[in-house]
């Protein structure tokens, strides 16, 4: 039997981008302006259009196959989420935290592609949005983010066997908009924002020593960062 392509998921809901420092009710109703224009006849003409953004609970996926190169909607999540953490863990897609423009969540749910349904698990110990999420071994990790009153350095780890979250040793730096990556048995917290400036620094978490260690920083960083890992074959 031909092997089915693995789905890759992406969350809708990045439209509303509240300013770091607060999330309030207005963020769901603000209408940002989109501008374009042209020059001619010695004058510059500017057009302004009002956009309406909405946080969605919809989720979509793409099948990596030549005959199915398209996005399709799947069952909606139980809540509308922006700035949530998304990762593949235990063969399922887990979505943690985020906000709906009014409140920040600690809730977590996973999508079962075989039943096309979402299922809740126990919530995180702290509410957070704009955090990093990654799976390492048999555990799911979240780190950093923003809880509505401050930027976070704390981290948590989830065990699916116990259906329980536990506190992890905190990072050395507060990081919102951070990317969390698992590679070679370790976690890497890359970049982020500490409430004052964008960060180029990188911290590595070693599960054996239960410590975060600074690694070589990025050359530059001007906002939220996306990180991916490609396994390299030995030469």
From TrEMBL:
Which keywords fit this entry according to its UniProt record? Kelch repeat, Repeat
Keyword tRNA processing in the entry? The reply is no
Gene3D superfamilies reported for this sequence: Kelch-type beta propeller (2.120.10.80)
Q: One Pfam annotation, family name?
A: Kelch_1
- Enumerate the SMART domains for this protein: Kelch (SM00612)
Compositionally biased region (Basic and acidic residues): 19-29
Task: Say which domain of life the source belongs to.
Answer: Eukaryota
Which residue ranges does UniProt annotate as crossing the membrane? none
- Please name the InterPro entries in this protein's record: Kelch-typ_b-propeller, Kelch_1
- Asked if the Swiss-Prot or TrEMBL record annotates the protein with the keyword Hydrolase, the reply is no
Region Disordered, as annotated, extends over 1-41
Q: What is this protein called?
A: Kelch-like protein 18
Q: Which organism is it from?
A: Conger conger (Conger eel)
């Amino acid at each position: 039997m031909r092997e089915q392509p693995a789905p890759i998921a992406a969350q809708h809901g990045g439209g509303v981008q509240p300013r770091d420092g607060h999330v309030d009710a207005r963020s769901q109703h603000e209408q940002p302006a989109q501008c374009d224009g042209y020059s001619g006849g010695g004058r510059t003409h500017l057009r302004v259009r009002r956009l309406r953004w909405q946080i969605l609970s919809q989720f979509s996926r793409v099948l990596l196959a030549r005959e199915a190169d398209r996005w399709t909607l799947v069952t909606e999540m139980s809540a509308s989420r922006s700035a949530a953490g998304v990762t593949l863990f235990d063969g399922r897609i887990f979505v943690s935290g985020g906000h709906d423009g009014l409140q920040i969540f600690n809730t977590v749910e996973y999508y079962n592609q075989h039943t096309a349904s979402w299922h809740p698990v126990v919530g995180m110990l702290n509410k957070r949005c704009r955090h990093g999420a990654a799976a390492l071994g048999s555990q799911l990790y979240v780190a950093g983010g923003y809880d509505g009153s401050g930027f976070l350095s704390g981290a948590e780890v989830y065990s699916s066997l116990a259906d329980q979250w536990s506190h992890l040793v905190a990072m050395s730096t507060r990081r919102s908009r951070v990317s969390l990556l698992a590679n070679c048995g370790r976690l890497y917290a890359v970049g982020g924002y500490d409430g004052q400036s964008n960060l180029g620094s990188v911290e590595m978490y070693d599960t054996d020593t239960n410590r975060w260690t600074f690694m070589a920083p990025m050359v530059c960083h001007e906002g939220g960062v996306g990180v991916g890992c490609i396994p390299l074959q030995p030469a």
